[in-house]
Design a protein that fits this description.
The complex is a heterodimer of chains A (about 240) and B (about 120). With about 240 residues, chain A is of the alpha+beta class. Chain A contains eleven helices and four strands, in the order ααααβαβββαααααα. In chain A, strand 3 and strand 4 form a beta hairpin. In chain A, helix 2 packs antiparallel against helix 3 and helix 7 crosses helix 11. The longest helix of chain A is centred in the middle third of the chain and has 43 residues. Chain A starts with a helix and ends with a helix. In chain B, about 60% of the residues lie in helices and about 15% in strands. Chain B has five helices and three strands. Chain B has a three-stranded antiparallel sheet. In chain B, helix 2 packs across helix 3 and helix 4 crosses helix 5. Classes of the chains: A alpha+beta (about 240), B alpha+beta (about 120). At the A-B interface, strand 1, helix 6 and helix 11 of A face helix 3 and strand 3 of B.
Chain lengths: ~240, ~120
């Protein structure tokens, strides 16, 4: 027989309840913004499965509430508390070191020196670096302090358009948004609770700030807009051909 | 009839034009090919880039990366000369015809070349 005091006084019950509410709110929010539902459910399963496996391992019977409240609840709560800093550490390690290392050693062709990057580093006391990727697709992205630009982009852009793209990526470094983006993507994969930790992360806002930096430096929107049009045209033609 | 006649077109008209520009010079960048082609037809630089990528995927052309002036570009070159390429197309086309039409195709070729 379960008494109400057992439920209210048990800390693991509060943790499980809070987690369930957070997951439910997150699922509702994803549904409300018409994002990828299947990804949300897969995400939840990914998060819950290790705990179920752990409960099974220590001979918990999840279907019985008092078993859940006692040994299972404590074990699972401790596991969740300890796993959170490990996941954060793993994300930082991945974002700052592992992923940039893989890209520079495996995919990058060459590191180049560009005057706009040298000037940026001098003014902002930064250490931004540019690498060319062996890819014909028009790609440009930043991980940590490293900017990766595909060979494909440099062969269809003019010098000013390429400069606009580089300045856009430097804008991400200046605003320290590149690591936020990677962290948000990795953390979302591991846990929906990270959504609330990064609730001030706005992808569109960061892109606009980076655009603003490029436009302010070049004193025109012409080259950035022209670069964007060429990328759209490339992908449209790629689908049609 | 297992395949329609349209499946025997190997290259699009623009792909053929690109190859025609590549064969004489042997090594060209995207922008150089674009400059040569735009004299005769209206097209975009991105179209040339996309089609060169297609030809690369079809293993008709190859490319290497050239780095210069703080940048990197692909230099494209044909994998076979014009004669070898045309022979390989003819061989594939004939094989496809024989595979599709069987005895009718072989009979046609025999009759056609016998008359010659």
């Amino acid at each position: 027989m379960i008494h109400a005091n057992q439920l209210i006084g048990n800390p693991s019950m509060w943790i499980i309840t809070a987690t369930s509410i957070i997951l439910a709110v997150y699922t509702f929010n994803e549904w409300k913004h018409k994002r990828n539902y299947l990804f949300v459910y897969a995400h939840l399963l990914f998060v819950i499965t290790p705990f179920l496996l752990l409960a099974n391992k220590i001979n918990c019977t999840m279907s019985i509430i008092d078993g859940l409240l006692q040994l299972c609840g404590i074990a699972i709560s401790e596991f969740m508390i300890y796993s959170a800093p490990v996941i954060v550490f793993a994300t930082m390690l991945t974002g700052y070191f592992i992923v940039p290392f893989i890209y520079t050693k495996r995919f990058a062709v060459k590191e180049v020196k560009k005057p706009e990057v040298s000037e940026f580093n001098r003014l902002n006391k930064a250490n931004a670096r540019i690498y060319f990727l062996d890819s014909s697709e028009p790609l440009a992205f930043t991980i940590s302090n490293k900017i990766f630009i595909s060979v494909g982009i440099s062969q269809i852009f003019s010098r000013k358009e390429l400069e606009a793209v580089i300045l856009h990526e430097l804008g991400h470094i200046k605003n320290k948004t590149s690591i936020n983006k990677l962290s948000a993507q990795i953390m979302r994969f591991f846990s929906p609770m990270s959504y609330f930790g990064l609730n001030d992360y706005c992808h569109d806002c960061e892109e606009k700030k980076a655009d603003h930096f490029a436009i302010k430096t070049q004193k025109t929107t012409e080259h950035l807009n022209s670069a964007r049009r060429k990328v759209k045209m490339y992908w449209r033609q790629n689908e049609n051909e | 009839m297992k395949e329609s006649a349209g499946n025997f077109d190997v290259l699009s008209p623009l792909e053929k034009d690109i190859l025609k520009k590549l064969w004489p010079d042997n090594k060209l960048r995207v922008r150089q090919i674009f400059e040569k082609l735009k004299k005769k037809r209206k097209l975009a630089l991105t179209s040339v880039a996309v089609l060169l990528d297609r030809l690369y995927e079809k293993k008709i052309v190859d490319r290497k990366i050239e780095t210069a002036r703080g940048g990197a570009r692909y230099v494209y070159f044909p994998k076979k000369d014009k004669n070898s390429f045309e022979k390989s197309i003819i061989e594939k086309t004939v094989n496809k015809l024989i595979h599709s039409f069987g005895e009718n195709a072989t009979a046609y070729f025999e009759g056609r070349f016998a008359k010659k």
